[in-house]
Amino acid sequence: MGLSLAWDLCKALLGAGLKLRQKRALEWVEMVRDNPEVFTGKLLENEEFQDGFVYTLEKYLIERSEEKRKIFRNIFLGFSCSKNKERFDLEKYSFLLSQLSIEDVETLKYVNVNSVISYQLFDDEIHLQNIYNLINLGILYLDPSPRFGPIHSPFVLTSDLGKNFIKYIKHDTK
User: Fold this and answer.
1) How, if at all, do strands 119-120 and 155-158 pair?
2) Which residues of the chain have pLDDT under 70?
């Protein structure tokens, strides 16, 4: 009943968009079908879950990148498993993902979320633009400590937001 209601709402809101993006909608439905331990009847009837379902499906359908759609599925699974859906950063993670290029996503795979000291992701200038984009989004932050000698790439730390967000990038689902 609950998923049916959310799905009907999505069809009403997104109508033609669902028809144009049937493959993506099918990916979404398969994700729900393949995780019955997560998507229980009780969850599907939860209004906060239904709101998140509609919100995320809309963002998912317009995402062009297959890799980023995989990350959307990971984020949504995290939201679905969350005990406090109202406090889950669903909209923030969706915004962050929409702002990232594929190169930014690849760069995030090298971030050490367990490091308590600053470090250089890369010791060259190749990924410099990506690193600064991640800093500007609040995923990473600069270490303000003075350094001596030539530095080709900034020393960074991972923000709490970044640590939470990156786990959805490094987690692989179908």
Assistant:
1) antiparallel
2) 1-21, 172-174
Which two structure tokens, joined as six digits, stand for 140?
A: 């990473």
Distance CA 14, CA 11 (A): 5
Provide CB contacts within 8 A for 121, sequence distance 6+. 107, 110, 111, 127, 131, 153, 156
**pTM metric for this prediction:** 0.84
Distance, CA of 157 to CA of 77 (rounded, Å) = 27
What's the pLDDT tens digit per position in 16-63?
A: 555 556 778 788 888 888 999 999 989 988 999 989 998 998 899 889
Q: How far apart are CA 111 and CA 125, in angstroms?
A: 16
User: What angle separates helix 90-99 from helix 160-170, to the nearest 10 degrees?
Assistant: 70
Tell me how crowded residue 132 is: count the other CB atoms within 10 A of its CB.
Answer: 14
